[in-house]
Amino acid sequence: MAGDIRHEAAAALEAAFAARDRGSSGDLPRVGLFGNGIPEVVIAAVGACPVHLSLDHGGQRHEVDRVVEPFVEPETRIFLNRLLGGEFADYRGIVFARDDAAALTAYQYAREWLRQRPADGVPPLFLWNFIHTDSGPAQAFNRVQGGKLAAFLQGVGLAAPAAGWADAVADEGARRAALARMQALVGRGISGAVAMCWRNAGRFIEAGRHARLIDDALPPQGVQAGRRIGLVGSALGSAAVYEALEETGTIVCDLQPWGAVWPGPEVAMPDLDTLLAGMARNPYSPRIVPPTAHRAALVEALVAAGCEVVVCQLSQHDDSFGWEIPSLAAELEARGIGFINLGFRDHEPDAEWCAAAAARVAGEGVPA
Amino acid sequence: MTYTPLETTKVAAEYQRDWLRGLRGQITAGAQYAFVNADTPHELFHAMDMPIVTNQWWSAVISAKQLSEHYVGHMAELGYHDRLARYSSLPLIAALEGDAERQPWGGLPKPAMLCARQSSDDHQKIFALWADLTGAPLTMLSAPAVPDPAPDWWRLAREDWEQLYGTDRLDLMVAEFGELIERLEALTGRAFDHDRFEQYMDAIDRQERIFDEANEILATAARCPIRISEQIPNVMIPQWHRGSDWAISHAEAFRDALRERVANGVAVVPDERIRMMWIGAGLWFDTGFYSAFEESHGAVFAWNMYLPFAADGYIRKNHGDPLRTLAARVSAMNEQLHQPPWVNEWLVEQARRYRIDVALMLIPANDRFSAHGSYFAKEALEAAGVRVIEVWSDMVDSRDWDREAVVARVVPVLDAVLAEKN
Fold first, then answer.
1. Right CATH number for A2-163 from 2.60.40.10, 3.40.50.11890, 3.20.20.140, 2.40.160.20?
2. Which of A49, A130, B210, B332 to pair with B220, CA 20 to 30 A apart?
3. Complex ipTM
4. Cβ contacts of residue B39 below 8 Å, gap of 6+?
């Protein structure tokens, strides 16, 4: 009986991840998100389901495609084609994280296209400005932005956050706890690929339901086997890559933007100001100030997770993480942790790339 | 066809070389300087008598000395991949290599302070490495985006900038200026003088209005009187020293020289037939390219961004708070040149004002902040009747630059324009 529940929950999580934003979020109105670092608890508190829109594989092409340069991230291109094609018409609004480079471009290009060619079937768009540093000016600015987000959500017909705040915080707290229980089993019952899938399923369903599904899906603790692998670099949602990297071990510390850095450590706070202050200190934001806090946080987490080797992979358009690589590699190797830079890969890497990646990870050991 | 350079061009270049030589001497004697990005509030450093070296200027100098290929190679040796931006990082790579003799003019001494703005994601990464290397304290300024950018920003920016840039963004920037001033005071041991700063801001306003007049002279001249390879140093070197007596005096001399040339009918191409614009940063390693089509087609590059932006990007009316006025200048400085709708609308306005026939658009694929919005701009210019030629290259990295190939792509376009005009 317990096995049935576990299998059903796991299947539901896998289905939610596979469907991405095309799945069902129940009867709740939906608010789209593009990028990490948006206070999703606020959106839940106003009675909506936050749904991430940047992980889709793509499909239809819209004429907006012609103004998207080849160096723009694929997730931005895919999103713009879908947005202007009317695929998000039933969303109450879409919130973009300014501190996510792909999201900022998506917001600016969408707005400009719509300014020149007003169209039906596109919900209101909102840019979430947020300063990732722990200073007085930043706190004051971020409080203003919190108010603007709440006003936007009310402007699209949703409730004031206060109404549902306690329930939303409780749901986020439950999710955080469930994710922590899941993380404890990575390498001891579930793989990094499964953890990535189950965690990111929550980007498309309510936090409370996500928490329940994870708790129901968790298997009994097993025995650690294989190498403990860390993963860093560009946003990656390909299960095939995870499976390839895990041929000789388990990804126990997943710090790429679609890994364990979401939903973030400060999601369940008693009030908005405390939430925003915690988010501003989140060192996993690539725009945290002081900038060295980001790399320091990566190293600390990888060491704490007992990683024996760290694998880095980059989107074809990386223009930021690459600046961390030599120092990160040196710092890890000084701690006896191997570093393998797989270099660039496509948005959806093919079997050949995955096989080569698996061979490298299998073939390269821990430094003496 | 004989082109006579402006005397002021030589004066500006010599001033800058002597200034750097003098700075080296001052630093050897114990003075401090700051290494800063172009879109930071230089005014605060000047007001505190803290000399600055601008990252992008130094990068352009390195490139002009044909050193970029060497440093890009060294960048790879250090483990930085090939798709990272070079314009903002060449000076870092030169510093990491540590061979001062290879660098222009004997290289840069170690800075006492670093400052950058988060307009692009890589700035904080690059400057953090600078801080690691030098031990100099780093100040990062925030760069939240304008959620509802007015397309005609240059009309609002001079006076109605509070509405244009947003009160919350300006509040933040002014507060961060306050923190920067405190750091400068601690570093220099001097107090920030608000009255003197207001006078200094007034002086900068005078300088930018002189450049505004120079811009009007160039835009309305029947034929273009100087090459853009001369416009750039005559504008940007005074801009690095903006508000100083020398800078204002040089801006006046430059404006007057333009006026005199126009009055005397002097033109780069006496039989000017095609007017072109160069979109993007300068092609620092091959500024001679800008004269490539003068003899063959009577085509002159009449426009680049530096002079018109000195007016539209810098003139900000002081409504009684000079620090807030400065925030209005800085808070979207770079964004206006690269992000839609700002960049496309401004380029169309400039193309009309300068009567442009053909635009060459530099698109540095590995410097995405600079390259974003290119297709929107291209589309808008073409709708305004301007032929646009994409130039996929880099402003400082010469490896992707094939001059002959670009010329071969430009020539048929110019031929077509001439055929239409004849």
1. 3.40.50.11890
2. B332
3. 0.96
4. B117, B119, B330, B333, B334
